[in-house]
Amino acid sequence: MLVAREMSSSLSSRARNRENKADDKDTIYLNFDGLCEPVNPGGIATYGVLVRKGKVHLMEDSGLAFAKPWSDEASNNVAEYSALIKGLEWLKTNEFFDSRIIARGDSSLVINQINGKFKVKAKRIIELHRRARELIQQFRNLKFVWVDRSQNKEADRLSREAYRWIKREHPSPALKT
């Protein structure tokens, strides 16, 4: 597993464009994002994930993260890991074990923890990190790339749509009478 930037600074612009176009046709891209609103932690944690090959969307998913709404377990980091795990589970179910996969997320914490650069200390994250690592080990050619939020708009949109939907089902405990 590698953390890499979208483009290597050592390649010329023309060479990068050729490389990216060639990769784009055969590469599977997994974009993931999570959020916890209106407060973090303790709000509603949701995720968004999409998988595409080239310009073809293979899968989109969003929903409640692996945490009960309005609980201490609900956090942005739990939501980010939930999105990653959901995407990896889909790739596993659809047997993409030997495909070239680039997982992209805008959480530097998750990317660096998955890559072993940051320690995992939070009790709630340890189990999610372990689950993600077990899934990751099943893929032969999987790399992780941190991307700016502006390059992760589709996954962000999915997590926000899930939040709006789930918020109606789980209003704030403070609003209940």
Keywords, please?
6 strands; alpha/beta; Nucleotidyltransferase, domain 5; disordered N terminus; globular; six-stranded mixed sheet
Distance between the termini: 50 Å
User: What's the total count of β strands?
Assistant: 6
CATH architectural designation: 2-Layer Sandwich
- The SSE order reads EHEEEHEHHEH
Strand pairing plus helix content: what structural class?
Answer: alpha/beta
Per CATH, what is the topology?
Nucleotidyltransferase, domain 5
CATH homology superfamily: Ribonuclease H-like superfamily/Ribonuclease H
Beta-strand percentage? 15-25%
CATH class: Alpha Beta
Largest sheet, in brief, is: 6 strands, mixed
Describe this structure in words.
Helices cover 40% and strands 24% of the residues. With 177 residues, the protein is α/β, with parallel strands linked by helices. It has a single domain (3-8, 14-175), classed as Ribonuclease H-like superfamily/Ribonuclease H (Nucleotidyltransferase, domain 5), CATH 3.30.420. Strands 1-6-5-2-3-4 form a six-stranded mixed beta sheet. A hairpin with a 6-residue loop joins β2 (28-37) and β3 (44-53). α2 packs parallel to α4 (123-136). The chain starts with a strand and ends in an 8-residue tail after the last helix.
